[in-house]
Backbone:
C-alpha cells in the first residue's frame, strides 16, 4: 500500500486522539465532581464543561494543524553525473574540474575561483596531444579565463560582472566538451 491510501485513516486517527486529549480537562473536572461545576441540571456545569472542552480544543488546534500538515523530509537526488564516455580520460578530468569550479563559484572568493580557473587553463595548455586534439575538435577553449584575468588586473570591470563572465566561460567549456559532436556534413 502506498502512503496516499493511508492518509485519510491517519488524519482520522490523529483528529480522534486530539479530540479525546482536548476533552481530558473536562472529563477530569466531571470525575472530581467539583460542587460549582457538577450539580443538578439547573447549574451551569454542562455549559462550563463543554466550554472548557472547546477552549482546550481551540488552543491546541494549531498543533493539530502542524501535525496533519507535516510533510516528510525527502532527500534530493544527487545531480546527474555528466556522461563523458566519448572523451579521452584527460578531457573528462578537465570537464569535471571546470564543473567543480563553476559549482563552487558562489561559495568562494572571486580571486580564489579565478586562480583555480587560471590553473585549469594552464593544464589545458600543457595537455597531451590526444587531449588537445579532442579540445580542438570540440572547439573548447579557456581563452576567456585569460581575458577575465587580464580585466581583473586592470580593475576596469566590476567583480560581479567578472564573476558572471567566469561562470559563462566555464559553462561554455563544459558544454563544448560534454556534448559530443557528430560528423559534420561536407
Residues:
Amino acid at each position: 500500500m502506498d502512503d496516499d491510501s493511508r492518509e485519510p485513516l491517519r488524519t482520522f486517527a490523529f483528529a480522534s486522539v486530539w479530540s479525546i486529549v482536548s476533552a481530558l480537562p473536562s472529563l477530569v473536572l466531571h470525575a472530581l465532581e467539583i460542587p460549582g461545576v457538577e450539580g443538578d441540571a439547573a447549574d451551569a456545569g454542562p455549559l462550563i464543561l463543554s466550554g472548557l472542552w472547546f477552549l482546550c480544543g481551540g488552543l491546541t488546534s494549531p498543533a493539530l494543524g502542524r501535525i496533519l500538515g507535516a510533510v516528510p523530509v525527502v532527500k534530493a537526488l544527487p545531480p546527474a553525473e555528466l556522461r563523458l564516455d566519448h572523451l579521452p580520460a584527460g578531457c573528462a578530468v578537465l570537464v569535471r574540474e571546470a564543473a567543480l569550479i563553476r559549482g563552487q563559484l558562489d561559495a568562494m572568493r572571486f580571486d580564489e575561483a579565478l586562480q583555480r580557473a587560471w590553473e585549469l587553463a594552464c593544464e589545458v595548455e600543457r595537455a597531451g596531444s590526444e587531449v588537445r586534439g579532442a579540445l580542438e575538435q570540440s572547439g573548447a577553449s579557456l581563452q576567456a579565463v585569460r581575458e577575465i584575468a587580464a580585466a581583473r588586473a586592470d580593475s576596469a570591470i566590476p567583480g560581479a560582472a567578472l564573476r558572471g563572465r567566469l561562470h559563462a566561460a566555464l559553462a561554455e567549456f563544459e558544454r563544448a566538451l560534454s556534448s559530443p559532436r557528430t560528423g559534420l556534413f561536407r
Summary: The helical segments are 3-32, 45-68, 89-103, 110-125, 129-138, 143-154, 159-178. The chain has a mean pLDDT of 81. The chain is about 70% helix and 0% strand. The longest helix spans residues 3-32.
